[in-house]
Amino acid sequence: MGTFSEDMNGYPTIQQIEYYRARARGGFSLIIPEAQFVVSKTEAWIAHQTIVGTAHQMHGWLAITEAVHSEGAKIMWELGCGLGREAPVFVGNGTSSASENPLFYNPSVKAHALTIDEIHEIVEGYRIAAQNVLMANGDAIEIHAHYGYMLDQFMTPIWNHRDDEYGGSFENRMRLVKEAYEAIRGVVGPDFPILIRMAAYHDFEGGRTMEESKEIVRYLDELGIDGFDIDLGCYDSGRWLTPSIYTGEASMLEAAAEFRTVTDKPIINSGMHTPESAEQAIADGKIDAAMFGRASIADPDLPNKVWAGQRDEVRPCLACNTYCSGHLVVNKPISCAVNAEANYEFEYHIEKTEHPKNVAIIGGGCGGMEAARVAALEGHKVTLYEKSDKLGGTLLPAATPCFKERLRLFTAWQIRQLEELEVPVVFNKEITADSPELAEADAIIVAIGAVPAKIPIKGLDGSNVVGVIDYHNDNAILQGNKIVVAGGGASGCDCALELAQAGKDVTIVEMMDEVVKGMVSYTRVPLLYELDRFGVKQMVNTKLIEVTDEGVLVEHDGKQELIEADMVVDAFGMRARSDEANAIFQKYGHITTLVGDCIKPAQIGEAVRGGYFAAYALH
User: Fold this and answer.
1) DSSP assignments along 201-252, one per residue
2) What is the rounded distance in angstroms from the CA atom of residue 461 to the CA atom of residue 549?
3) Nearest alpha-carbon partner for 153 in 222, 80, 255
């Protein structure tokens, strides 16, 4: 899991060192840091990593290794030679590949085919990197040949069109991996563990199949590789890069288990494992170890909590991919939607204040609850006011689909934190600028959220129209088989998928040229896959004109059309309760902070992180 928090020359920062230390301290037994480059000349976006292949790089690895070892964990250094045609293009071109392949992010540009001399430089890079790992006291090495990155491009015919000794036959396509392994083995000796990370199959037309991967594993097993890190996919398939809620838990387990038939070497596997799925998979003999990438970002103390019998205390990863994977594609350091301290363990520490304040928090959604949790941990006297009879806000209806279990778990986790901290919660109490409770507060945090937007469309208030939140609160109010979902945002698409999974005939009507256009691609691609799989029709560039008793009247390409529907779901989005929030701010501005959807409708992470920082700033 990349952090993107190293210095520009590639040397780890104290921030990165403490990130890995925190996860070792939290009980993870083997830390596999983000892939380290053995060369920096294969593509423009890593050219700035000038310490590659030098003693300075070794010193950086040693700093992380010492931090990990000091907490009782082992470390396996993952070595790669670049992303090849998959490399980002935010710093320009200059990318290499096995052959002149179109760049994934900009197909109009072709990668440069590595020369024989450049390939030999890569092999030498692995040899030097192995020396650096030994000198840095590393415990194992993993060769990164996954995700359609450089080594994968040599191994796979669709990307390797070479006619020299590194292309053509199976043995030639495996030559670079073989030479890299032999260079490493020649340095570390016969007893030092060397693993390889690769996909069971690519899951796109022309990509590598399961049988082809089994042939590779047989070959590498005989060559001497000590273990296999196996999951799925590559950039061209998309849905497996960082599996989402739409792919499900332990989603790549069965693919990895297939390789039990071709090797008796250890197999490790990732893919949205839970402690329960991992334990069962190992007990069943399907794998030997399970990896927790994003789960470790959300809660670095996951193993220790499980060992202590505190499973419910584990902060669940939402698999939203927003602040982790989503940050990587735009060259930003990672963080986490539910853990604002992730990757910033060195900077952020919740400490008891010497000056406790009376803190009024208005709104019991995810942002308000996070503010209450942090403020209480800091020692402030907190009172949380919620206008309904339960905590959770709009997460409660949003979490009702079967694939939204992680939202349900996160809401339950937040509620449990407030109970353990004994934070007073006043239910059925709507606070306004004139409420006397605010006059006694030293600090006010407003997290009153948003309400469904009211769009002036004829018939949208009819008896055959149901709001998406109302539907989630009571599925029974939606009758009939033909359903039109008006609005192709995240809530509309989730609703459409849930209805389609229940066997409904569903059509999404969306004004923009794509549905869920602003969603991070790692989550959007699997969602679109599921919508297609369950037959959800998508009418984009389509304007809803009117809702009638027969269905909806829409306009597309200047022509009007009636789409028959038994009922319509209004998923036109939310409107911030900004007027109410600003009224409080106008009266108590010097002590008031606004958080989350009451500023503008946003994602969960913005509300949770906003709540964290609003309380953190109180001191």
Assistant:
1) ---STTS--HHHHHHHHHHHHHHT--EEEEE--BTTT-TTSS--TTT-TTTT
2) 12
3) 80
Question: What sign results for the dihedral spanned by CA atoms 271, 276, 278, 284?
Answer: negative
Distance CA 517, CA 296 (A): 28
Backbone angles phi, psi at 223, to 5 degrees: -65, -30
pLDDT at site 535: 98
Residue with token string 């698409």: 493
Per-residue pLDDT at 113:
96
pLDDT in tens, 334-344: 999 999 999 99
Nearest-angstrom CA–CA distance, 145 and 169:
18
Check: CB of residue 584 under 8 Å from CB of residue 446: yes
% of the chain exceeding 70 in pLDDT: 99
pLDDT tens sequence across 51-60? 999 999 999 9
| Pair 240, 231: CB distance under 8 Å | yes
Beta strands (DSSP E) in 99-157 are 112-113, 140-144
In the chain, count H helices and then E strands: 20, 25
CA distance 533 to 506: 12
Give the H or E element holding residue 382.
Answer: strand 381-385
Beta-strand runs (E) in 468-504: 482-486
Q: For residue 600, which amino acid is it?
A: K
Cα separation, 493 vs 404, in Å, equals: 13
Q: What do you get for the CA distance between the two ends of the chain, in Å? A: 32
Where the chain has pLDDT below 50, the residues are: none
